[in-house]
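In this section we walk through a basic example: taking a raw amino acid sequence and producing a predicted 3D structure, encoded as discrete structure tokens. The instruction is simple. Fold the sequence below.
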Amino acid sequence: MNRIEIKIPKEIRQYKESIFFGLSARQFFCSLAALFIAVGIYLCLGRFIGRETASWLCIVLASPFAAAGFFSYNGLSFEQFVWAVIKSELLFAGNRKYISENPYYEAYFGKGRDSHD
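The resulting token sequence is shown next.
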């Protein structure tokens, strides 16, 4: 008796639809972009800077595009991760003052007493 097994992820949010070669749409299009970048660089610059240098330049410039398709950190895509780093390190950088709040103290004594505002 032949059985057909279908793998179902335990968490439905982990489901990724594959469209080509087992890759998701994001992975496929990022890999395709990296391929076009690498081929373009090699064909355009190969005769001017030499094949070996052009091949290293292909690797260096195309690998971030390929990696962006497969990158995931705490559920964030590459673009979301880069935006979070920019916000935390550049836009909202600086010292953050921590002031604790005790709702029980405020309810008993009122907000006006010993407030930091």
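Looking at the output, two observations stand out. Strands lie at 18-20, 23-24. The CA atoms of residues 73 and 116 lie 37 Å apart. In the next section we compare this with other chains.
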